[in-house]
Amino acid sequence: MEMNGAQKSIGAEDLLRHVLATLKFRFDIAIAGVNEEYPGFEAGNGVRTPVVLVAHMANVLQSAHTAMTGELHDRGETGTWEEETARFYRIIEKLDQAVPAGLTQSRETIEKVVQGPLSDAMTHIGQLLVIRRMAGDPASGANYFKAAIKSGK
To answer: What does the pLDDT look like over 53-110, one tens digit per residue?
Structure first.
């Protein structure tokens, strides 16, 4: 961002919130318009189904929330596709709201949240897209560099 000819650096809060908004945006693309067979699609031996992947993603993001706030979460049984996608969206929103409090944690805790749960969730979004293509229902393409991703949206 330019300010009077000088480069303005991005703060940790803005960066973390942008990463969360990016996760949500990419997740939106990965699941938009999936067919009814997709959530339970078996890609092969030992590969999680999409609904199990989404449940896992929500769990790792809940771990990030716990690291940032100390609030514990129940993991429970994997629910339906609708329940798990709704849970993913809820935890992304809770994480976004928790970022200011989370920044009071140690630098090491924040780094672990980025290198662990947030990176893991991004990887799994890629897996959802690959599995979707394998299931014969590829997602629409997107130019992520030009995407209008805004924190808190």
So the answer is: 999 999 999 999 998 888 888 777 899 999 999 999 999 999 999 888 777 777 788 8
**82: how many CB neighbours lie within 10 A of its CB?**
10
Let me know the angle formed at the C-alpha of 85 by 84 and 89, rounded to the nearest 5 degrees.
115
- Contacts of 85 by beta carbon, 8 Å cutoff, 6+ apart: 31, 54
How would you classify residue 46: left for phi > 0, otherwise alpha for psi between -120 and 50, otherwise beta? left
Per-position DSSP letters for 55-88, written without gaps between them: HHHHHHHHHHHHHHH-------S---HHHHHHHH
C-alpha 125/C-alpha 56 separation (Å) is: 11
Cβ-proximal residues to 13 (8 Å cutoff; 6+ apart), any chain: 99, 100, 103
